[in-house]
Amino acid sequence: MKKLSRRSFLGNSTSLSLAGFFGMMPVLGKQKQQGDFVHHVYFWLKNPGSAEDKAKLIEGLNTLKNIKAIQLARIGVPANTNRDVIERGYDVSWLLFFNNLEEQEVYQKHPVHLKFVENYSHLWDKVVVYDSVDV
Fold this sequence. Notes:
Layout: H1 6-28, E1 37-45, H2 51-64, E2 72-76, E3 92-98, H3 101-109, H4 111-120, E4 124-133
């Protein structure tokens, strides 16, 4: 058996440790996915004070969550935050994540989405959409 010097042992240990660390990096943190597509929709109700209309819209949005192209879906209402840069005039928000633009287009043409627009569009007065891609 060959005897290792302290310097040789430390050098080999450091190399192995660094190789192990860099090999484990994807495990340590979430890897960035290329091509993520974000679709964020804001709804202003025709009757902004109507809890019933808001509940109906939320009910309708929940029907969309089962569309397979959607990676993540969240329904929200304005948070109780007050700064000059915060828009709080909307009633309901619909935040969606897709793997790419093509899957978002599948969602747009999906029969469940088309039925949602048909059944619930009478509730809103205005819709604003922000689409973005991950950089």
